[in-house]
């Protein structure tokens, strides 16, 4: 299994501190982010035509350690059921030292996960936390919009952009994600099913899973030394049998992220006066990452994901331009109306499959 406490303690210990901010400025930033998250909700709903089916409130604003703790909780919700099924394969294992080996392996897995999260915690601006632990009554929350205040403040300083505009711009993106899932009840279950199917798609057991995390750690070390292969971490964690599932995961994530990018920029000119300046500087900063960041981004697959997100935004833009927002929103109808990766790259195929038959009938 994974020692979740070790994951948290490792991540919190390794994460770099945020920027120096006066207490009054920090409080003002937190209050404004909460306010702007609510403002963004109205803009996103009006522009997209999506409406949440559950009540939502202001975003939760956290620091870097808080983001790590929240994500470990999310990993537990997704991974534990699959890991328990893997562990059933080892029931009755009486090999001497097996319990000790399992304890050591779980700590190693926790350290690997914590190390990855410590890096990401310094980069993430916001997130819609889709997977949360059950509440005291055993009910699963619908999700939570989270903003990482020190990262937002640090980025707006580096970009030298208007803080209020930048904060609203970020909120527009994350609020779009919240709208996607709160207006489409089946989508959360679909993503969770994909994640668990991904883990259970091979004959891997818990020890194999830990071995893959250990291989991931070796891939990290190799990349830093300059001896690792591109995409080493993703390769270490993925079996050949999982590629088809990964394509479905990539398709839904490309759609979600691309939709977020499209909305934040399309709404932006109306409510964020400096949106063009922000986007240009944000893109330039992304492309000018330092060598270590480039290594880690490549290793964690972030560069590959950015390409997918760009493809997702292009898909949304093309479909909306061709058939309008109302017909684009048919994408959220069911699992069957989601685009495949091939359709993300060729939107006309999705339009022919999902939109055009209806349009012809009318």
UniProtKB/TrEMBL annotation:
Pfam annotation, one family: Zincin_2
InterPro entries attached to this UniProt entry: CHP03883_F420-assoc, Zinicin_2, Zinicin_2_N
Signal peptide per UniProt: none
Superkingdom assignment: Bacteria
UniProt name for this protein: Coenzyme F420 biosynthesis-associated protein
Species classification: Bacteria, Bacillati, Actinomycetota, Actinomycetes, Streptosporangiales
